[in-house]
Design brief:
With about 325 residues, the chain is an alpha/beta fold. The protein has 2 domains: about 120 residues, no CATH class; about 200 residues, von Willebrand factor, type A domain (Rossmann fold), CATH 3.40.50. It is about 25% helix and about 30% strand. The chain starts with 13 loop residues before the first strand and ends in an 11-residue tail after the last strand.
Amino acid sequence: MPLPKLRPLLPLLLATTALAQSNQDFTLRTQSNVVLIPTTVQTKHGEILYGLKPEQFVVEDNGIPQTIHLDEDTDSLGLSLAVVIQCSRSAAVEFAKLRGLATMVDAVAGDAPREVAVITYGATPTLLGDFSADPGAMLTALSQLDTCDDSAAATLDAVSFAANLLEARKNHYRHAILLVSETRDHGSEIKAAKVIAQLGRTNTVVDSVAFGPGKTEILNDLKYGGGSGPIGLLVMAVNAVKKNAAHELAALSGGEYINFTTQKGFDNGLHQLSNHIHNYYLLSFQPHAEANGNPTPGMHSIRVKIPDYPDANIRFRESYFSGSLDTVPPEAQ
């Protein structure tokens, strides 16, 4: 049985509400501390594995098995998408490959109602076009893209800027960032730990399209289970972000990551990204609460297993952050 078509870029971390849309009118139904996990399952040969049942998934939060729900009713949710594009450093030689950015936005959003903002950055972010549902406004903003003579590429600052814009939206759309950048951050002032926490607070998923050195920088450094509690997990996440910001922001938030060095690589990567985004299972669980009704504060690791398919390649959101991060612990600087 084919998996129902699900919409991309679902809310990140501790979602305090689940939203439904009917005839363009939104209905809010309150839920308590629900963690959402977009999960893609492929065979060892790369084919998408459809038709799995909720009882076939095992989801662990910090090693503790959770009672999960499989949600198939996400088709009507709208999308607020911030397209964040690096204009500095090696971007100058990559812009010619990005002619399909408008097509990429369509591929990411699917048929969902959407509003799009366009941001470019080197040392600092610049808003080329504010959120608009008009496709013409997006095209106008994208037409203003140009390279910038800047030695910095402050990716974390730009992602934080986009997350702030998303947080200010007054609708009930999902929040997402499409990041087009080098793999590494160069020159951000904000701490990585604060960006990780901010993405959680604003329920934002990051999909990354990275240009640069390429496949050898795709990381497997973030190994949960060996950290010493929430701070240890946060330190590992911060260290991974320092090595490859584009990859780890996607992995931590539940988004997709592609890396390209050629036009063919970009086109193939875009096809892969779109295919994964539109063919996933939406798992969710309500984490165990402390006496105050909230989950244990700090960084949590997520693991998804399918015992019936031990050889399956499973892609899922690797973590979530509970609570706020008012200060950055010295260990996570």
